[in-house]
Design a protein that fits this description.
Elements (H helix, E strand, L loop, with lengths): L8 E4 L5 E6 L10 H9 L4 E5 L19 H16 L4 E6 L2
Parallel strand pairs: 2-3, 2-4
Antiparallel strand pairs: 1-3
Length: 98
């Protein structure tokens, strides 16, 4: 992240031109979406990335805390840039749940 924080990003590889970045809600972390990620990737429907947001699970940061209001948005933007840089996906879908 732009401030040096390390956020957990997992990849479930699939040979497809579509990528999905899954964002969890406020009371969980990325592992909650592992069954869905494995299901989609195994069927080559999408290459899946699951992000654990700042302050959750194995990601850096105090739970529920950000340094400034848009920090969560910046974290997602930085992660999308990372996904774009590591995949040749023609389409990236952002899937969020809360």
């Amino acid at each position: 992240m732009r401030d040096g924080a390390r956020l957990m990003l997992r990849e479930y590889a699939a040979d497809t031109e579509t990528a999905v970045l899954i964002l969890h809600g406020s009371t969980t972390h990325d592992v909650s979406y592992a069954p869905l990620a494995r299901f989609l990737a195994a069927r080559k429907l999408a290459r899946i990335f699951t992000l654990t947001l700042r302050g959750h699970g194995l990601s850096d940061g105090a739970r529920g805390d950000v340094s400034y209001l848009a920090q969560g948005v910046d974290d997602v933007a930085d992660t999308l840039a990372q996904v774009r840089a590591t995949t040749d996906a023609r389409k990236i879908i952002l899937l969020g749940h809360s």
